[in-house]
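Posting this for the archive.
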Amino acid sequence: MDWDAYDILTLFFSISYLITILFTAFVIILEDNNAIKTISWIIVVILLPVLGMILYLNFGRNFRKEKLFSRKGLTDYLNIKTFAPYQLENLDNDLIRGNPRLYEKKHIMRLLLNNSKALLTQKNKIQILHNGTSTFHSILGALELAKNHIHLEYYIYEDDEIGNKIAKILADKAGAGVEVRFIYDDVGSWGLKKKFIDQLKHAGIQVYPFMPVKLPMFTHRINYRNHRKILVVDGTIGYVGGINVADKYIHGEEHVGFWRDTHVKLEGDAVHSLQAVFLTDWYFVSQQSINDPRYFSKHSIEEEHLVQITASGPDSDWASIMQAYFTAIGTADQHIYISTPYFIPNESILTALKTAALSGIDVKILLPGRSDLSIHLWSSMSFVGGLLRAGVEVYTYQKGFNHGKILMVDGIFGSVGTANMDLRSFDKNFEVNALIYDEEAVAELERSFLEDLRHSTKLELEEFTKRPLRLKIRESMARMISPLF
């Protein structure tokens, strides 16, 4: 058989093609991702070997396992190495043992102490803030009263009316000698112009982007974003929840309408934990280690409301927030209420929800009727049929866009924070949640949730299964590609 140059080149590229596929597939399998995600990436690599490999290197790798990110400094704060083991040994205190309903959730407290060293704080005041108007009113008031320092980090910070109003207060406070530190996510806040940042710096504000991405130097780090929304004022007042700094949280948006969301204001011990998360992130972006006691100020709060602040992300050994969701759902004995804008659960969460409903637990999930990200809504809808067949009640919010990220269980446990119930929040984003063990606060969350259901459409299995084939195909396609990103 005679071989010409064309035949040799063809053979060379064929062998290279096969080696590329086999090598990349081998690497993907070694990553130890969930089976669906692994299969999805292998299909992409087979169909688009070169492009698929580039996409995988940028979006698919498991950097929690590879330890790309370091939690250097976290255990320096709050004497976590000392207090976490002590709390693990002494969870049976009078406050918990004296309330049988609270005592039943002790395993969640223990889980978070083990998987993320999330200290259980007791002396706290909790205020649930509904939607952007009340949240920003509270935030602006707290900023005006700042005397020592202001620490804030946001996934989205926009150069709009509310963004400039906050920026002016920050600049005024910095000019008056208040320390102001600001972290913004470089992708989430992509619209922030250099001029805006320079003005903040010129005013004396310390500003750092989280993992800046400079095109065309496209790197894998674009896929790992800081989705946290944290504000700490003088170490005594803290905010966390789903609301970014943008006018749409006040005025809504034309294509989705009113933005429905929830935030929480904390005063007391839990603020110290929120501060520790911020300072850990500050070390990551600035390489400045800050552990002065004045950032963990004494407070006068005497109310007793249990709160754990837990952070999760590629810097964590465990997917702590996902594990907290799973445990709370799997051990519920009365009801489970969930509000989330993006519902793309892993198999563990999905099974836990179905099992709970089949066991007679009242499970209600509130999803958006309209979304800012259509592909996420389509993917969410692909899970609805199986949930309905298991007895889960699923509602779609019709008054606007439901952006709240809340889990409520048995009227005694609640989670308010930045984490959605989706694969990105579980694995790739840096998130932070306030886990609340308190009947009063959770009752308010549940009242608001049930009020939201009045403005929602309940999905019925018979009608849902009759929706057009084109919608089913669209939803299935969205679900198939969602594990990739």
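The CA atoms of residues 415 and 435 lie 5 Å apart. The chain has 21 helices and 19 strands.
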